[in-house]
Design goal:
heterodimer; A: 264 residues; alpha+beta; Sulfite Oxidase, Chain A, domain 2; B: 216 residues
């Protein structure tokens, strides 16, 4: 039995055969196609695709150009930032429990911080540099906010954070609020920094609690930064030190090419 | 090719030089934005089954995709503003894209489905072309707007709320990209089928008579 069957009537096959008129109509046109031009066009398209090959690795002229653009975008974001504009807040019913874990390592690799011996070290343009214990911080006026966490990857969740308002804390320790940056050091060697206007925003805090309970180890116990106006990765966990400074220092992710300002 | 007799020197070409420059800048911006956007998308996919192959994405890691995307956005937005301004001020949009007559459109769609819709005259767009070009312009406005909201959802929180929230905006941005990619496939295929249109976008194409164009 032959596997090649003669054509049968089909809903999808025109009864009168395939219409040859387009071929006749375009015959002259097809003959005018300049093969060299088509080839040349393909080549330049191919060359464009090689652009992606320029930025493999962290160095090279393309990478320094793109980092220059990223630095320009920092300036634009400073300009866009509305210091008095509050991020939307949500109801307790919308709070996700537990929060979503994300770090530069897996959740099994967390090295928990001992809250009893932990201290918050202060340095730089701060009048009173005495370190703070968890108990001392707990005695300061507490703030609570239910805000959206937005990750640079695209996911988000609503969380309830409580702790000490960063602006009030900086005022209390006599920090120079006209300085440019507030720099954070963490127990996991993570570093982050905020521009001063973002640090002084009403919804920027040193968080010690999530959904009313002390922070769990994966989410930054005993103290983490939480701000409503930055991408997730700016919210340093397991904070051990705060420095107020005018000198820009690269941070954990900005060193690897992520945008430093990272405002939302 | 067109001769360059002195009498024709002042005659307007179908695609004037500024338009051609903006068209090709836009083409580069599109390639950068789509391929780097795919890189960013791959880090947290919207559709579980859809990952873009690394070979089609721009940037080594996610941060490089982001760097390209936030560089490309300037080219796309500034060039787009220049293009729309040019189209409105010179009357090109009005001349080339309007009017769209409902009856013509139905006939043209029917012709297109039978593969007999003429699209070989680059000086005259049929109703389907007109509607597609207008549609893609609107998609362009929407993808830039949603892009701005995704970049600054809190600073522009009013706009975020108006568009249905962060994740909704993300999906709109993704659907706009899909529409643009589909448009590009059709646009490039048809341009290759009638290479004269492609050549016209490089050389400027035939000289056109404004008076005649207006009358038609």
């Amino acid at each position: 039995m032959s596997i090649i069957r003669s054509p049968r009537g089909s809903l999808f096959r025109p009864k009168g055969g395939v219409d040859q008129s387009p071929l006749r109509e375009h015959k002259a046109l097809i003959e005018t196609i300049d093969r060299r031009k088509v080839l040349r066009g393909t080549l330049s398209l191919g060359a464009l695709s090689l652009l992606s090959g320029c930025d493999v690795g962290e160095t090279g002229p393309m990478q320094s150009f793109l980092r220059g653009v990223s630095a320009w975008n920092d300036k634009v974001q400073e300009f866009i930032f509305r210091p008095d504009h509050l991020a939307p807040t949500y109801s307790e019913a919308e709070v996700v429990k537990p929060p979503r874990f994300n770090a530069h390592f897996d959740v099994e690799d967390i090295k928990p911080v001992d809250g009893a011996t932990w201290k918050l070290e202060l340095s730089g343009l701060i009048a009173d540099k005495r370190p703070w214990t968890a108990q001392q911080l707990a005695q300061l006026p507490q703030q609570s906010m239910i805000i959206r966490h937005i990750c640079v990857e695209g996911w988000d969740y609503i969380g309830q954070w409580s702790g000490v308002n960063l602006r009030q804390f900086l005022e209390r320790v006599g920090a120079d609020l006209s300085a440019k940056y507030v720099f954070f050091r963490c127990a996991d060697d993570y570093t982050e920094s905020l521009d001063m206007p973002s640090a002084l925003h009403a919804q920027t805090m040193l968080a010690t609690k999530y959904a009313g309970d002390p922070l769990a180890d994966p989410f930054g116990f005993p103290l983490r930064l939480r701000t409503a106006t930055k991408l997730g990765f700016k919210n340093a966990k397991w904070v051990t030190g705060i420095e107020v400074t005018n000198d820009f220092q690269e941070t954990f992710w900005s060193k690897q090419g992520f945008n430093w300002f990272a405002g939302i | 090719m067109q001769s360059t007799r002195p009498a024709e020197l002042h005659v307007r070409r179908l695609h004037p030089l500024p338009l051609r420059i903006m068209h090709w800048i836009n083409a580069i911006a599109m390639l950068i934005m789509i391929s780097s956007g795919w890189k960013i998308y791959n880090d947290d996919v919207i559709l579980g089954w859809l990952h873009f192959p690394d070979a089609l994405t721009l940037g080594h890691w996610a941060q490089h995709g982001l760097q390209w995307h936030f560089f490309g956005m300037w080219i796309l937005a500034l060039n787009g503003i220049a293009y729309v301004t040019y189209g409105l001020v010179t009357g090109r949009f009005r001349r080339m894209l309007f009017p769209i007559r409902w009856r013509e459109f139905i006939k043209d769609v029917s012709d297109a489905l039978h593969f007999r819709l003429a699209h070989d005259d680059p000086t005259h767009y049929n109703a389907v072309q007109r509607l597609l070009y207008i549609g893609i312009l609107l998609v362009g406005v929407l993808i830039v707007t949603t892009g701005l909201v995704l970049w600054k959802p809190i600073q522009f929180s009013e706009l975020t709320a108006l568009l249905g929230g962060f994740q909704t905006v993300r999906i709109i941005h993704f659907l706009c990209m899909s529409a643009i990619v589909l448009f590009l496939i059709v646009h490039v295929t048809l341009a290759l089928l009638v290479p004269r249109t492609l050549v016209a976008m490089v050389t400027g194409g035939p000289a056109v008579d404004d008076m005649k164009a207006k009358a038609s």
